Amino acid sequence: MAERTYLQAISDSLRQEMRRDKRVFVIGEDVGVYGGAFKVTQGFQEEFGEWRVIDAPLSETAIVGGCTGAAIMGLRPVAEMQFADFVSCAWDHLVTVAAKQRYRAGTAVPIVVRLPSGGGFSGGPFHSQNPESSFAHIPGLKVVCPATPADAKGLLTTAIEDPNPVLYFEHKHLYRRIKDDVPEERYTVPFGEARFHREGDDVTLVTWGAMVFTAAEAAQKVEEEDGISTEIVDLRTLAPWDRKAVLASVEKTSKALVLHEDTHTGGFGAEIVATIAEDAFEHLDAPVRRIAAPDTPVPFSPPLEKAFIPQVEDVVKGIKDLAEY
Amino acid sequence: VTEFAPARGTTGTEVGLVLLEVPLRVAAAEAEDDPVAERLATLLPEPVGGLSHVSSVPLECLRLMAIAWEAEPVGSLSELKELGLDREDLLGIFRALVTTRGIEERGHILYKQGKIPGSFYTGRGNEAASVAVATAMGPDDVGAPLHRDMGVHVVRGVEPWRIFAQFMGRVDGPTKGKDGNVHMADARLGLIAMVSHLPAMLPVAVGCALAFRIREEKRVSVGWFGEGASARGDTHEAMNFAGVRRLPVVFICDNNQWAYSTPTHLEYACEHVADRAKAYGFDGVVVDGTDLLAVYREAKIAIDKARQGGGPTLIECLTLRMEGHAVHDDAFYVPKEMFEEWAKRDPIERFRSWLRENADFTDEEEDEIRAEVKKLLNDAIKRADESPLPDPSTVLEGVYATPEDLETPHHK
Prior knowledge:
The complex is a heterodimer.
Chain A: E1 2-5, H1 6-20, E2 24-28, H2 44-48, E3 53-55, H3 60-72, E4 76-80, H4 91-98, H5 101-105, E5 112-117, H6 132-136, E6 142-144, H7 149-161, E7 166-171, E8 179-182, E9 195-198, E10 203-207, H8 211-226, E11 230-234, E12 237-239, H9 243-253, E13 256-263, H10 268-279, E14 289-293, H11 302-308, H12 312-324
Parallel strand pairs in A: 2-3, 2-4, 4-5, 5-7, 6-7, 10-11, 10-13, 13-14
Antiparallel strand pairs in A: 1-8, 6-12, 9-11
Chain B: E1 8-9, H1 16-30, H2 35-41, E2 69-71, H3 77-82, H4 87-112, H5 127-136, E3 142-144, H6 150-156, H7 160-167, H8 201-214, E4 221-226, H9 233-245, E5 249-255, E6 258-259, E7 262-263, H10 276-280, E8 283-288, H11 292-307, E9 313-318, H12 336-343, H13 347-359, H14 363-386
Parallel strand pairs in B: 2-8, 3-4, 4-5, 5-9, 8-9
Antiparallel strand pairs in B: 1-2, 6-7
Helix pairs in contact in B: 4-5, 4-6, 4-13, 4-14, 5-6, 5-11, 7-14, 8-9
């Protein structure tokens, strides 16, 4: 075990896979000489050469579409979108070609697209988004949103091994802020298995990505202030997502709150809430609640962005309201 | 590569085919009393005068910017021998042409009989271009052919009965009923299935070439697109990236002059789509797509060049789409004269005449091939018709790949 940041854990996994499997290569804008906008691939080009760490032109469709072709030819491409927001330029390819090729033509497309996502830095409307729900909606794609360094490493390894197109959302706000012990050896974390970030009896809080830590802070606070015991279910992957873990927790607590940094309407929280309503209705003692960003673009100026991204106090209020219901 | 260079035309003025297009565009623009206008007018709230496509650019101005080569016809059997084709190969090509057209003609009949659900697309007029390019490909090369490129499937060895099964939505079609018409490919034969969004397969073809470059394999990828799809950004991104990295990919533009109902002057403002190649740092060539041997020669040169590390080439095969966009479309918007002119250049008839004049192609040989193909297609339709429709319970199958899916030759 060694203490690694979330960013180092991602980098470690990628390096480890590239060392053990010659088929794995990295492609993206500024991933080579510069080492990536966030330095995830720093030093990679020196180690693996310019044909395995490929600086691509500013062409998201060619990057991700090229990955599909290379994957069908037997390689294991890992594309980096400089910011998750820019995946909109490759949305067509992912949804139209990569997602459907297995179902309609029997061709597996084992690609990983890394997506530095999320806000909190005044990145503004085009460098802060969390577009996971629009991909979780598409059959054929897998969606991963790790919160901890250990999961970041294990889930990326699983993503590279997976025979499907995987969107790997890495939250920028966790990159250097979150550190933890991470095993040095290679390991995988299975898709579709939630992790209980914290166990509790009174309220179930379902979330993922950076919001896991917002939730944890709020849970700590309500425990200290009001003795409310919150169970935090970190989904880790949205496609597939662990219904069983969520339903089991709701059966135990009878109250559920879903939290995400993505905007409210049509966010992935809606799917979770609907599932709880359908399959755990008899166990509920309160309406299922959602906390999400409002339905606006991500604003730039700090007070506006703070008003946009769910804060600890919002979650504290949400937990308390439910506990008192 | 250099030894074939003298065979390629550089004149840019000797363009019988291309010149034909211009007066017909004008004819279309002036056709105010055309029945087309009358038919469309009923669909619009107010009568409109000139409903044909009008170009506001003086057409003579469009001719000043030619950059691409214009390929000349192939002269002789000996030239073809140098390019790797013997007489036996040529008869095989004729057979592939007749099979290609036969599959689409028979498919059209099946469609009219209600045996093919959905829609049905044909590549009439493009048979020679598709057969020629596929013939120039090597066994380990790959490609992503489109809906006018049935000849590629035929040449690569997809069995016709499986194609009919695909048309009819049966379990023995390459997509097992999950997708229709020409949205199919047999990956074991080096083909990648197209999608409707054009030219979405170009970046994929470039990615195949990238894999070959990374592994330093002497393989080539072929990406097809139409002149209509040349207007989309995927074309630019794919060609730019391929040019930057000098990847072993050949771009084939099936320029059949109509993107559904939209003519070329409303799709691009340069003279040839192939002129753009220069801007991406590689060669472009315009070839008469009804001249099988000329297309073959250009494709062979381009593929060999890519294989040797010479980077991409853009080959524009000029044809006319001899039928509607799909069989529901009677192509009323295409001037009648245009069809008449291009009908004289039927690609199969042209190749047949060439064989007769240059390779002593006999009636007996032709009859034998045609009879053979007829039987092949009769048997194919019968066998396809015996293939069951998919079980509704299989609707959920195959959304996600399993690790076993990666145990294929092309994934290793």
